[in-house]
Amino acid sequence: MRPENTLAGFLHALELGVDALELDVVISADEQVVVSHEPWLSAAICRDAAGERIDPASERLHNLFLMPYAVIRHCDCGSVRNPRFPHQLLNTAYKPLLQEVIAEADKYAQYLGRPLPFLSIEIKSSSAGDGIFHPSPARFVELVSAVVHAAGVAKRTTVLSFDKRVLQAARTQVPSLPLCLLVEDAQPLAEHLKELGFVPAVYGPEHCLVDKKLVAEVHTLGMRIIPWTVNELADMHRLIALGVDGITTDYPDLLVSSLVR
User: Fold this and answer.
1) Residue 99, class by beta-carbon neighbours within 10 Å (0-12 exposed, 13-18 middle, 19+ buried)?
2) What global pTM score does this model have?
3) Which of 26, 179, 184, 217 could form a disulfide with 200 if both were Cys (CB 3.0 to 4.6 A apart)?
4) Which residues contact 109 (CB under 8 A, 6 or more apart)?
5) Which domains does the chain have, with CATH numbers?
6) Is 206 exposed, middle or buried (0-12, 13-18, 19+ CB in 10 A)?
7) Residue among 13, 8, 38 nearest 25 (CA)
8) Is 256:17 a contact under the CB 8 Å cutoff?
9) Cβ–Cβ contacts within 10 Å for residue 7, how many?
10) What is the pLDDT along the chain (261 residues), one digit of tens a residue?
């Protein structure tokens, strides 16, 4: 509905009545926590600091981990139409800092007279990207945790990751912070948890993996189950009927209207 991971997107979601904002974070060259899906400038939705379109073949050369935030801030990632969302309302937008998103979202929620939003912060990393597109898991967690605690939002923040190393580091550094294991494969729940080494607060599978048996298994272990990314109304209805604890969607208007009915 709005460009991804931008202030316009988050504030519009609050207008629609969501209770949690899901966002992705990366690290800049000067160790700022930047809200962005990829650790590079996406050719599909961004222009570089000079205002030029980015060649898809070389987009990874526009590595945010090698750019200071002052440079990243001048890159427009809101006025190029995302081909996946042809009806998106466009506007010039920069990649904000995590601390800015928290402050602006809280201020807008108060203006709307709504509860302060929960934050689901996804840390994207992989062993292949260590030291290239992001810091080590431990340092990544340290930087994100510092922003969360400085903003005073730890009690309403969950850290999400597909990378089990991130969740293991977070459990050691900030054991009070709820964690969510994201999953996109059919590996059994028990095997994922064995590799992780503990039971997190939330299990986040791709929505097509969710069935009655998985919901029961997750709840038996005391976890919540919040599938992603659910954009079709029929899937929303199916998952709600199965008893999931939340839904991540690109179309909160559909979900909100479905819940109101």
Assistant:
1) middle
2) 0.96
3) 179
4) 14, 115, 116, 117
5) 8-37+99-260 (3.20.20.190)
6) middle
7) 38
8) yes
9) 20
10) 999 999 999 999 999 999 999 999 999 999 999 999 999 999 999 999 999 999 999 999 999 999 999 999 999 999 999 999 999 999 999 999 999 999 999 999 999 999 999 999 999 999 999 999 999 999 999 999 999 999 999 999 999 999 999 999 999 999 999 999 999 999 999 999 999 999 999 999 999 999 999 999 999 999 999 999 999 999 999 999 999 999 999 999 999 988 866
- Residue keyed to tokens 């994922």: 192
Q: CB-based burial of residue 45 (10 Å sphere; 0-12 exposed, 13-18 middle, 19+ buried)? A: buried
Cβ contacts of residue 186 below 8 Å, gap of 6+? 209
Distances (CA, A) of 30 to 27, 62, 72, 134, 169: 8, 15, 11, 12, 22
Token representation of residue 219? 């709840």
Strand partners, 160: 122, 180
- Contacts for 241 with CB less than 8 Å, ≥ 6 apart: none
Contacts of 195 (CB under 8 A, 6+ apart): 164
Q: Report the C-alpha gap between 223 and 203 in whole angstroms.
A: 7
Q: Give the DSSP letter of residue 75.
A: -
Q: What angle do CA 112, 36, 181 make, to 5 degrees?
A: 90
